Inverse folding.
């Protein structure tokens, strides 16, 4: 029964996003911007899968996923900007010239090559997560302390990225690109291609996460969430497992960020401020943590709501999100995906009560 | 001797929780430790399995010092622990609890590409039958009754197949019938494992204590002997069995 439901859901999802939406665009019913907006949501959903792995399954609340997301975005942004600069005959990106810098900083050099950019976009977040994780997990930092430290880390990185001295564009971030691998970013077909690429990456990420959570490895992760000490006494090296899942989550966030950049055309440090990093966790909380479908649906739904609400009542979006979050925490701790279960349970509980009183 | 303990001491905030001069355990011996509340029984097991760090002393297991090693290292060396308050994975099914416990390589890559084998399934099934868990195999462990959780935790320890099992109050919260069954199981396990059991239920202690019983009082070893000797020792009666007689205790 359950697998049947799952298959139905997958088919619905694929038909809607891989066939109906592109068809809508091709027949002229939808604008290419709608397509592009959904492509961006898919990137968020990829990052949300990582958050679900580390928080939903392993019980570690990491608030630095937004930072890993930005690392991916910044890497691709640097590559695109260098390509544009070289094509226009200049040696330095505009913002560096304004800041009176005369040579390209060393860490920009490898981003001339597309291949190296991809490698570094994945390698830097993974290495960062590995080192931070090693320190935090070795010192047995858990629960709320983990959340506070990772949030502080994101905040520190946000401050560093805001500075002009970092040579990453400061508050304005990096923007103004025109081509990717030689194709113009403004063309509709490139936008559609990026949309389809994001969708297929989301499906691939979902499949990988599905395999991970259904393997014995995934069961160990859930066991760590339930009773970490019991896992140690059963001879599993808890630190290794936490570290592995932290790196995987960072990679997923970075992949999301990499695909996100060419579709929005701008990355600023605002993507990793406190609000952004809390919001990413909220996608998973609202969708249903410990449930991969919940993470994807949560990310898509919240962002879809965001775009509706910000155009209808621009000032009240944060109130709406906060209200939804409070309701979820109080009444639906399994989120949107667990809605059916929770209601069914409540219903049968009241029925039991009434039958007992009669 | 499989386990040797010398001059082990630990104190919490100035209070001597444990001050054990000497303790040793033969291979395949079943030892029962009794003692009033706060005697340091659970603390002793906590130190052996690495949960609590000792202030000083030495513990050798199989000729190697294990004091100060991590929980994982100690578990790998062959020591399994059942806690007083059942510690299982409530969100996983009983089957998954048992699968995670089963003895095998436990690094991340082995877990990631793990495939079950008929031999392993057989082993899990066998242990589940022994502990009457077969009809709840696919229920979440959190939904089990207290007694069933106790058995599940024992099953977890059994599947780890350790050389030494540390069993803390296995009969707590069980019916008489379940207690007796637990006792028989421990006796059977003692044929192939060394076991240290902490217990308060004297009927249960009588059932399983075929060999020595150690009495701990206020962190110290009061005496060691057969159950009959311990039961008839005046000091033990004063300190422990005769707790109702408050006058004797103050003497």
């Amino acid at each position: 029964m359950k697998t049947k439901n799952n298959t139905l859901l997958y088919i619905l999802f694929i038909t809607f996003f891989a066939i109906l939406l592109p068809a809508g665009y091709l027949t002229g019913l939808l604008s290419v911007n709608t397509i592009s907006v959904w492509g961006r949501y898919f990137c968020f959903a990829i990052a949300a899968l990582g958050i679900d792995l580390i928080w939903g399954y392993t019980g570690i609340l990491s608030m630095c996923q937004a930072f890993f997301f930005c690392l991916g975005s910044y890497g691709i942004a640097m590559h695109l900007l260098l390509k544009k600069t070289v094509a226009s005959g200049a040696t330095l990106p505009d913002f560096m010239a304004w800041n009176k810098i005369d040579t390209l900083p060393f860490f920009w050099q490898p981003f001339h090559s597309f291949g190296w950019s991809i490698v570094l976009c994945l390698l830097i977040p993974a290495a960062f997560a590995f080192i931070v994780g090693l320190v935090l997990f070795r010192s047995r930092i858990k629960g709320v302390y983990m959340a506070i430290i990772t949030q502080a880390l994101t905040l520190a990185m946000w401050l560093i990225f805001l500075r002009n001295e970092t040579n990453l564009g400061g508050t304005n971030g990096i923007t103004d690109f025109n081509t990717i691998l030689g194709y113009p970013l403004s063309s509709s077909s490139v936008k559609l291609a990026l949309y389809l690429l994001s969708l297929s990456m989301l499906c691939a990420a979902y499949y990988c996460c599905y395999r991970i959570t259904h393997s014995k490895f995934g069961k160990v992760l859930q066991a760590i969430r339930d009773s970490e000490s019991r896992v140690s006494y059963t001879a599993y090296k808890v630190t290794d497992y936490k570290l592995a899942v932290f790196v995987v989550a960072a990679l997923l966030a970075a992949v999301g960020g990499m695909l996100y950049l060419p579709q929005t055309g701008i990355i600023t440090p605002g993507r990793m401020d406190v609000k952004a990093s809390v919001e990413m966790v909220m996608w998973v909380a609202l969708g249903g943590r410990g449930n991969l479908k919940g993470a994807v649906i949560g990310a898509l739904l919240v962002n879809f709501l965001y775009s509706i609400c910000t155009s209808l009542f621009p000032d009240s979006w944060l109130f709406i999100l906060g209200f939804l979050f409070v309701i979820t925490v109080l009444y639906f701790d399994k989120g949107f995906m667990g809605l059916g279960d929770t209601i069914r349970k409540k219903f049968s509980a009241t029925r039991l009560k009434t039958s007992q009183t009669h | 001797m499989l386990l040797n303990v010398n001059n082990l001491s630990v104190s919490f905030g100035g209070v001597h929780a444990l001050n054990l001069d000497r303790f040793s355990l033969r291979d395949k011996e079943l030892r029962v430790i009794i003692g009033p509340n706060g005697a340091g029984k659970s603390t002793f097991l906590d130190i052996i399995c690495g949960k609590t760090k000792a202030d000083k002393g030495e513990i050798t297991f199989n000729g190697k010092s294990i004091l100060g090693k991590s929980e994982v290292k100690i578990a790998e060396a062959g020591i399994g622990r059942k806690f007083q308050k059942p510690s299982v994975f409530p969100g996983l099914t009983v089957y998954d609890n048992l699968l995670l416990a089963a003895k095998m390589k436990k690094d991340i890559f082995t877990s990631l590409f793990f495939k079950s084998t008929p031999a392993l399934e057989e082993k899990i099934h066998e242990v589940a039958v022994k502990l009457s868990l077969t009809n709840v195999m696919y229920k979440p462990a959190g939904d089990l009754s207290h007694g069933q959780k106790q058995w599940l935790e024992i099953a977890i320890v059994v599947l780890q197949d350790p050389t030494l099992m540390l069993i803390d109050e296995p009969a707590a919260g069980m019916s008489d019938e379940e207690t007796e069954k637990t006792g028989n199981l421990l006796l059977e396990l003692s044929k192939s494992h060394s076991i240290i059991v902490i217990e308060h239920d004297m009927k249960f202690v009588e059932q399983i204590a075929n060999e020595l019983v150690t009495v701990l009082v206020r962190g110290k070893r009061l005496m060691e002997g057969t159950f009959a000797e311990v039961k008839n020792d005046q000091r033990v009666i004063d300190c422990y069995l005769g707790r109702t007689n408050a006058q004797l205790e103050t003497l």
Q: What stands out?
A: Confidence is low (pLDDT under 50) at residues 245-251 of chain B. The first helix of chain B runs from residue 41 to 48. The interface with chain A takes residues 49, 51, 70-72, 75-76, 80-81, 87-92, 96, 99-101, 106-108, 111-114, 156, 160 of chain B (CB under 8 Å).
